[in-house]
């Protein structure tokens, strides 16, 4: 859903984004209002929970909208409100999220001069805001590899080609793609396997093994290098076992790195400090998590920031993370997020009037 608030005074155009989707997670917070919703996901009935805080983002943007409408007579410029689905990814191989909204013409008739977004974050203490210019969150890419052998009885492995043993070596060798081939002294990178499937019976060596995983990077040249290196390692390791690897690296379009416009971020830093105090705004380390807000940031100067979600008495370093069934938002984050996004919006519109 998209809405545009037109101020009565001339001025620039900005866009504000909130993601609205939930996750296939069964809530375990024990709260009286904990989600009991269920849905079908990958042919299974699963719980549905706002385990990433997107309900907070939606509430914050609705609050900002109410405030902006109330001051429309004094408001310079125009504000686009973007309520975006599928930030967590569209089902299967469908299109979705920011990329699809842009493809369908989000900026065709309304090209903002700047765009702002936020995310509540469990690793940030409530009452604090974390932001940095330049790279903030990693690019995220999925890969899939199928190792094809030749099925045989488990008692006679010499009569077949064992894709399980080949896959075990492949997974080990793939760790060198980052640790020995990528210059991680320049930018961090991660390569992780998330699932592996092969065989159905204890005494049958199967025909094939399938595995999937994720690659996280900040630098596009390194991103492309890791794609190529993983494909090479997979294919050659399988060949060494007499097997074959079909490596799709990546196997679908991923999210680019989320990069805050340095000049815009520096300009808006005082706005954030005005909300929570200069001592409560800090520069976080690079985050290996990903955000499809990055697609907007590729097209217009943008700033994305984190709002603390972990309440007093809880260590953010050990608090249940976003996506955890125990994820618990301290509701002060709603107030901080609303005031921060509103302050940034009003200050930008005023300075560009």
User: Briefly, what CATH class of the largest domain?
Assistant: Alpha Beta
- How many helices? 7
- Average pLDDT confidence is 97
Taking pLDDT < 50 over at least 5 consecutive residues as the criterion, the unreliable ranges are none
Q: Give the % helix.
A: 25-40%
Features:
single chain, alpha/beta, Aminopeptidase, Alpha-Beta Plaits, seven-stranded mixed sheet, 17 strands
Account of the protein in words:
There is one protein chain. With 353 residues, this protein is an alpha/beta fold. It folds into two domains: 2-136 and 257-351, Aminopeptidase, CATH 3.40.630; 139-248, Alpha-Beta Plaits. Helix content is 29%, strand content 29%. It is built from seven helices and 17 strands. It has a seven-stranded mixed β-sheet, sandwiched between helices. A four-stranded antiparallel β-sheet has the order 11-13-9-14, with helices on one face. Strands 3-4 form a two-stranded antiparallel ribbon. Helix 3 (163-181) packs antiparallel against helix 4. The longest helix has 21 residues, at 220-240. The mean pLDDT is 97.
Short description:
Residues 143-237 form the Peptidase M20 dimerisation domain. The chain has helices spanning 54-70, 97-103, 163-181, 220-240, 262-276, 294-297, 332-351; strands at 2-6, 9-19, 38-41, 44-47, 76-84, 114-125, 129-130, 134-137, 139-148, 152-153, 190-198, 204-205, 208-217, 244-248, 258-260, 281-282, 302-310. The chain has 353 residues and is an alpha/beta fold.
Give the SSE map:
Elements: E1 2-6, E2 9-19, E3 38-41, E4 44-47, H1 54-70, E5 76-84, H2 97-103, E6 114-125, E7 129-130, E8 134-137, E9 139-148, E10 152-153, H3 163-181, E11 190-198, E12 204-205, E13 208-217, H4 220-240, E14 244-248, E15 258-260, H5 262-276, E16 281-282, H6 294-297, E17 302-310, H7 332-351
Helix pairs in contact: 1-7, 3-4, 5-7
């Amino acid at each position: 859903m998209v809405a545009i608030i037109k101020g009565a005074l001339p001025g620039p155009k900005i866009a504000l984004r909130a993601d609205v989707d939930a996750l296939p997670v069964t809530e375990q917070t024990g709260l009286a209002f904990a989600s009991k919703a269920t849905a079908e996901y990958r042919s299974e009935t699963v719980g549905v929970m706002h385990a990433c805080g997107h309900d907070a983002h939606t509430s914050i943007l609705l609050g900002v909208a109410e405030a902006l409408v109330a001051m429309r007579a004094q408001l310079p410029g125009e504000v686009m409100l973007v309520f975006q689905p599928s930030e967590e990814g569209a089902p299967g191989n469908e299109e979705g999220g920011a990329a699809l909204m842009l493809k369908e013409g989000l900026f065709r008739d309304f090209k903002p001069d700047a765009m702002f977004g936020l995310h509540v974050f469990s690793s940030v203490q409530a009452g604090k805001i974390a932001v940095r210019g330049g790279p903030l969150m990693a690019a995220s890419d999925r890969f899939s590899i199928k190792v094809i052998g030749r099925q045989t009885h488990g008692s006679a492995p010499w009569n077949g080609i064992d894709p399980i043993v080949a896959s075990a070596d492949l997974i080990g060798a793939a760790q060198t793609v980052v640790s020995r081939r990528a210059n991680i002294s320049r930018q961090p990178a991660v390569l992780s396997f998330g699932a592996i499937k092969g065989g159905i019976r204890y005494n049958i060596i199967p025909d094939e093994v399938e595995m999937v995983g994720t690659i996280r990077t900040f630098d596009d040249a390194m991103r492309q290098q890791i794609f190529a290196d993983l494909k090479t390692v997979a294919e050659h390791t399988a060949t060494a076992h007499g097997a074959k690897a079909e490596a799709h690296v990546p196997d679908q379009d991923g999210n680019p790195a989320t990069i805050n416009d340095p000049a815009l971020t520096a300009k808006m830093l005082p706005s954030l400090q005005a909300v929570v105090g200069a001592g409560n705004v800090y520069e976080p380390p690079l985050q290996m998590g990903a955000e499809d807000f990055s697609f907007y940031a590729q097209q217009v100067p943008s700033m994305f920031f984190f709002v603390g979600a972990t309440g007093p008495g809880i260590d953010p370093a050990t608090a249940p993370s976003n996506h955890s069934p125990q994820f618990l938002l301290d509701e002060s984050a709603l107030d901080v997020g609303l005031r921060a996004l509103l302050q940034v919006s009003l200050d930008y519109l005023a300075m560009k009037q």
